[in-house]
Amino acid sequence: MHRSDTTPTQPGIARRLRRPAALVATGVLALAGCATPSGTGGPDGQVTLTYWMWDANQVPGYQQCAQDFEAENPDVLVNLEQYGWDDYWTQLTARMVAESAPDVFVDHAQQFGKYASFDQILDISDRVEASDIDLDQYQDGLVDLSRGPDGGLYGLPKDWDTVGLFYNADMVAEAGYAPEDLWELEWNPRDGGTFEEFLARMTVDENGVRGDEPGFDPSRVDVYGLGYNESGGGFGQVQWAPYALSNGWTYADTNPWPTSFDYDDPALAEAIGWWRSLIEKGYMPPLPVATSGIGTIESLGSGGYAALIEGSWNSRAMAELQGVDVRVAPTPVGPTGERASVFNGLSDAIYAGTEHPDEAWRWVEYLASPACQDVVAAEGRVFPAISSSSEKAVATFSELGIEADAFAVHVEDGTGTLSPVTDRWSEVQSIMQPAMDEVMSSTDDPGPILADADARVDRVMADE
């Protein structure tokens, strides 16, 4: 999700990827039936709540939810504001410090711990109990992503996501693969398995030679078999996590609220070492090219990448790329005998300083209800948190020609790993991002680099 502004170093990829990246708004987009500032009274004593989110693709569905909610709650108006990902967290943190944060906002597992530790999010446990909300209606594990170490509940589940292998269907067919073949791919850290064979076949140099053919030049690549956007830091959700997790690795000793991380596990170094080897073989771009500022979705659309690991939240954007037929398969099966993905979920949280906690609760309760989540399911953008609504979203995706089962397979098979939840994630990332950048920028054994980073992370977790 974060990219640097370095310049592509290989002429083939620079030419292929030179295309505007404007799929997600970077400024604020405000939509509401009333422009009254948050917390102030509207006509006839109406209360206006401000609701923040970062995904522009989801705005229409939630605007509809807001209109439906207002029809049932005429004393409340919802002012929906959307910011781009980076700006969102910068603005939210600043507003928290200034004690003027939005009444309700979409929260992420990696950010939740920080805000909860500073008492900036309202504990809604009593309200959930009083409203007799059935927490079992949500997909397994999602509620845990908003549980504090004190047992409090600091949000209700909004949606869930996993990752899959998106690919250019025409390129895949030209290479001799059928869509069902991609569901059978497997990888291992020794020779990469059939997954690496696939990536080699999909990679093409500037002379039209494929990566599995004699004469292939890995220094002059025109189409990379696999794309990525950055090194992944300590999370690696759409980078290295599917391989590490399917190699028997886990993030930490326990989750949520771990006391130590496992970045020194040889299973991680083994998986990362293989993943990085794809760069050396020419099947994946070097880190400076991947972080050139040109997005992976645009790169797939322009033909610079043949495939990439990406999140279910971008399925609709992928399907709507012009001039290219993009499809999706699940992540490859690993040495454990299973495929793997991070299983993450967002929540809707209430700012602890809101002047209208009762009205904010009514809105959060509505957001987490079938009434709203069924509307979201019909939009075909994300998978709602409620299990029954998820099933409806799968049907919507299928109608749009998107293979939703490639993501749902992790829920059905239990191969999803919950996103780590800690109040020290920013400190963890400040160590792991440069460490993983170093790993991906060198040919050294990643084991010592990761072990050193792990020791520093564990000192942070131990308050040393």
What structural class do helix, strand and pairing data support? alpha+beta
CATH class of the largest domain: Alpha Beta
> Helical region count?
19
- Give the distance, in angstroms, between the N- and C-terminal Cα atoms: 30 Å
User: What shape does the CA trace take?
Assistant: globular
Stated plainly, the CATH topology of the largest domain is called D-Maltodextrin-Binding Protein, domain 2
Mean pLDDT: 90
Describe the main β-sheet briefly: 8 strands, mixed
Flag low-confidence runs.
1-28, 31-40
Number of domains: 2
Number of E-type strands: 13
CATH homologous superfamily name of the largest domain?
A: Periplasmic binding protein-like II
Overall radius of gyration: 22 Å
Task: Give a brief description.
The protein has 464 residues and is an alpha+beta fold. The protein has helices spanning 11-17, 59-72, 85-97, 109-117, 125-130, 169-174, 179-182, 193-202, 241-245, 266-281, 287-290, 296-302, 315-319, 357-367, 370-379, 387-399, 405-413, 425-441, 446-461; strands at 29-31, 47-53, 76-82, 104-107, 156-161, 163-168, 204-205, 221-223, 307-311, 326-329, 341-350, 383-384, 416-418. It has 2 domains: 15-161 and 345-402, D-Maltodextrin-Binding Protein, domain 2; 163-342 and 422-462, D-Maltodextrin-Binding Protein, domain 2 (3-Layer(aba) Sandwich), CATH 3.40.190.10.
